[in-house]
Amino acid sequence: MVTDSPKATGPAPFGVVPNQYSLLDKTDLVFIDAPLTGFSRLAGKGTVKDFAGVDEDVKAFEKFITRYITINNRWNSPKFLFGESYGTPRSAALVAALNNDGIEFNGVVLLSSVLNYNDMAPGYDADSKVYLPSYAAIAWFYNKVPHTGTMKGVCGEGSAVCTGAYSEALEPGGSAVL
Q1: DSSP codes, the chain
Q2: What is the pLDDT at residue 71?
Q3: What is the model's pLDDT at position 118?
Q4: Which listed residue, of 63, 70, 97, 163, carries a Cα 20 to 30 Å from 146's Cα?
Q5: Using alpha carbons only, how large is the chain's radius of gyration in Å?
Q6: What angle do CA 56, 90, 21 make, to 5 degrees?
Q7: Is the pTM of this model over 0.70?
């Protein structure tokens, strides 16, 4: 689509031009809605109980993907799994289940990973200090802090900072009075 990027683009209709970087003519992009969400509907004798649960959800995706690659003769094709938001933990479980069934993947992409649901619960203040060692390791890896020692050492220093005054300052969470 033709846009005015980086400026804001006006309203439709938009012009369409060939995209030399498109993957559409080189790949099968298959988008799957979780059972009973988006445009997905029950087929055959399925019931809500067949899909309501982590194992049931993964099994449904596993059956769909296995059927798709079989019907479309794609067993020898490269395969990548892309999970977004709540699809990220599903992707982790799904790629493990598919690998156990002999379906190899070339990669898994996790976008906007949701790996700690407690952080999103209303009224729940995440214990932010537990993230500091990871943040320190990331800063070390990307040369945002001096490279003195090893990443393991930097993680240890991050853990040490998480005690004492820093820990006490974070303890009240979102209920702190500033």
Answers
A1: ----TTSPP-SSP------TT-STTT------PPTTSTT----TT--GGGTSSHHHHHHHHHHHHHHHHHHTT-TTS--EEEEETTHHHHHHHHHHHHHHTT---SEEEEES----GGGGSTT----GGGGHHHHHHHHHHTTSS---S-HHHHHHHHHHHTSTHHHHHHTTGGG---
A2: 96
A3: 56
A4: 163
A5: 23
A6: 130
A7: no
Total of domains in the chain: 2
Same domain, yes or no, for 56 and 34?
yes
Range of the domain at 142: 128-175
Residues 111 and 132 in one domain: no
Residue with tokens 């998480």: 162
Report how far residue 163's alpha carbon sits from residue 167's, in angstroms, rounded to the nearest whole number.
5
The per-residue pLDDT for 97 is 95
Say what angle helices 151-161 and 132-141 make with each other, to 10 degrees: 150
Is 141 in the same domain as 88?
Answer: no
